[in-house]
Amino acid sequence: MNRSALPLVRGVYGLVMGGACLLGLFGVIDLLVPIEAGMAIVLYIGLVIAAQAFEATPRKHAPAVALGLLPGLAGWGSLMLKAGLRAGGAGSAAQPFSQALLAPLQQADIWAAGGFALEQGQIIVAMLLAAMLVYVIEQRFLAASLCMAVASSCAWLGVIHAWRFTQSDTVLQIGWGAGSSWAFGYLLMALVFLLAGLSRLKRQPKLAKTNSSGRTCADHIEKT
């Protein structure tokens, strides 16, 4: 497929999917299209988008693209974990999801709490973490600090990471201070990047002065 046509294909796909959601047509589509065929189409689109993400960005930003994929992978893993728990009998009225599930999972080296935290607001988390790493790679530490400050605010309000159990699922927990532990972590990162950025700003005039004096010396040597 011509790369220039991909935005048009994505736009049409988005309109079709949005229209199907608004009109409640997925039940009809499920009857007409086998789930295996639909999954193959979605998988292909995901592969194309992931490949283009690496191709369309500078090579030095590839780590940021990879970091941006991690919250989505954590969300997918959390969905599979919860589906397995429900298949094993948990998530019912007699055995609802609760904090008691976490300890046995940790003993099996499955840190479900972290996966559940990354699952909440995963698109926002992916954008903020990827942007932060891009700015760090480019040594734009003040911009990276701003990204982490935004992440800290979102976590504090429960927009990202904060979660709670329902009977058979984990859901976002919106509220003042709901994600305080994650908010403090992001705030600490913001402060570290802020100090790095301020230190870099202080060193820039010295570097500029050194470079200018070096050019003056070189010009003098050439003239003599």
Please explain how this structure is put together.
This protein has 224 residues and is mostly helical. The chain has two domains: 1-56, no CATH class; 61-223, no CATH class. The protein has nine helices and two strands, in the order ααααααααββα. A two-stranded antiparallel sheet has the order 1-2. Helix 7 packs antiparallel against helix 8 (141-157) and helix 8 (141-157) packs antiparallel against helix 9. The termini are far apart. The mean pLDDT is 87.
Q: State the end-to-end distance.
A: 62 Å
- Low-confidence runs of at least 5 consecutive residues: none
Within the largest sheet, what's the order of strands?
1-2
Mean pLDDT: 87
Helix content: over 70%
What are the secondary-structure elements, in order, as H or E?
HHHHHHHHEEH
Radius of gyration: 24 Å
Shape: globular
Structural class: mainly alpha
Total domain units: 2
User: Strand-residue fraction?
Assistant: under 5%
Instruction: Please give the number of β-strands.
Output: 2
Largest sheet: 2 strands, antiparallel
The helix count comes to 9
Defining traits:
two-stranded antiparallel sheet; 224 residues; single chain
Topology summary:
Layout: H1 6-23, H2 26-32, H3 35-55, H4 62-87, H5 102-107, H6 112-119, H7 122-137, H8 141-157, E1 163-165, E2 170-172, H9 180-223
Antiparallel strand pairs: 1-2
Helix pairs in contact: 4-6, 4-7, 7-8, 8-9
Offer a concise description of the structure.
This protein is mostly helical.
